[in-house]
Amino acid sequence: MGELQASFHTFSIWQAILWCYYPMAVLVALELVARSIDDDDDQNGGRMVPVLQSYSP
After folding, report:
1. How far is the C-alpha of 1 from the C-alpha of 6, rounded, in Å?
2. pLDDT grade for 57, boundaries at 50, 70 and 90
3. pLDDT score recorded for residue 27
4. What is the span of the domain harbouring residue 18?
5. pLDDT digits (tens, 9 = 90+) for 15-48
6. Number of domains observed in the structure of the chain
7. Do 40 and 46 form a contact (C-beta atoms < 8 A)?
8. Contact yes or no for 25/31 (Cβ under 8 A)
């Protein structure tokens, strides 16, 4: 039990707060990287071309 108290006193409150934000920062960074990869291979930015739309009355 003495080791637990010693480790409690060496771990500051700022480290505990930052430890909660590390996983969220990683997720936000992954989301930003995923959005920056543009796999848009269609023309005109993905707008529909009416000529290619099939017409069914």
Report:
1. 9
2. low
3. 95
4. 1-34
5. 888 888 999 999 999 999 988 886 655 555 666 6
6. 1
7. yes
8. no
